[in-house]
Amino acid sequence: MAAMLVGALRRGSGCHGGSRLLAQSLRRFVSTLVVAEHEGGFVKPSSLSALAAAEAIAKENKISVLLGGSGPSLHKAADHAASSHPLVSEVLVADSEALAHPLAEPWADLLRSVQQKGGYSHVIASSTSFGKNLLPRAAALLDVSPVTDVTAVKEPRVFVRPIYAGNALCTVKYTGEDPCMMSIRSTSFSPTTEAMSETKVAPITQWVRLGLLLMQVMFQMTFRLGRQGKLSHRSFIWLLEYPEQYNTWQE
């Protein structure tokens, strides 16, 4: 990808021509992860506005939607997200009691794992209390700086956001490493009203916390071996020294 971008700059006639070709090349490689909120089995309107913001980044954008929580309402919301926007290519579902409440710590860990797996160029969340709490923590884990309260998208990495308590607007350019993490003001992006056909419904992928599954299996084995009198103290040592690297989210 880097070689293609360099080639695009070299083919440009002058600075402005090279900049235009660079912007066009960036649009071709845009992929966005939208962190969505849901309630009552439906994606919240603020998250639908985040999908509209992802579309504004690039028309050829490949959008993935991340949903977390537990229970039947989560999977109903996943079905809604899969048909909520024509550019949605997949819906990632993390079903866990740890995500049932909007706490930033478990969500930031999930978001880091999903980003490391997917390698998205952009991560978008709505500027709700949940998004404002989650985005800085996840950005710190990924060693990037977030762009907050975006009200307009001019280019894939050029945005408009308010300053001075909303009394002025400024244009900012993100120059850091991927992903470009941003929160958007939902009132500035209208959700799409385009009708979706059944053939455009995005696939749904389950994400599980590998460490929790292994712990459950280990506890079951410990219980069964303990009843048979075959349990050694080393099993308890293994549980106490459970390796942290296994306690990660996996697709």
UniProtKB/TrEMBL annotation:
User: Main localization of the protein?
Assistant: mitochondrion
List the cofactors: FAD
Q: How does it assemble?
A: Heterodimer of an alpha and a beta subunit.
By sequence similarity, the record places it as follows: Belongs to the ETF alpha-subunit/FixB family.
Where it sits in the cell: the answer is: Mitochondrion matrix
Function field: The electron transfer flavoprotein serves as a specific electron acceptor for several dehydrogenases, including five acyl-CoA dehydrogenases, glutaryl-CoA and sarcosine dehydrogenase. It transfers the electrons to the main mitochondrial respiratory chain via ETF-ubiquinone oxidoreductase (ETF dehydrogenase).
Please give the superkingdom of this protein's source: Eukaryota
Q: Which residues form the Electron transfer flavoprotein alpha/beta-subunit N-terminal domain?
A: 32-216
Q: Could you tell me what this protein is called?
A: Electron transfer flavoprotein subunit alpha, mitochondrial
InterPro entries assigned to the protein according to its UniProt record, in alphabetical order: ETF_a/b_N (IPR014730), ETF_a/FixB (IPR001308), ETF_alpha_N (IPR033947), Rossmann-like_a/b/a_fold (IPR014729)
One Pfam match: ETF
Query: GO: which molecular function terms?
Result: electron transfer activity; flavin adenine dinucleotide binding
Name a GO CC annotation attached to this entry. Answer: mitochondrial matrix
Q: Keywords in UniProt for this one?
A: Electron transport, Mitochondrion, Transit peptide, Transport
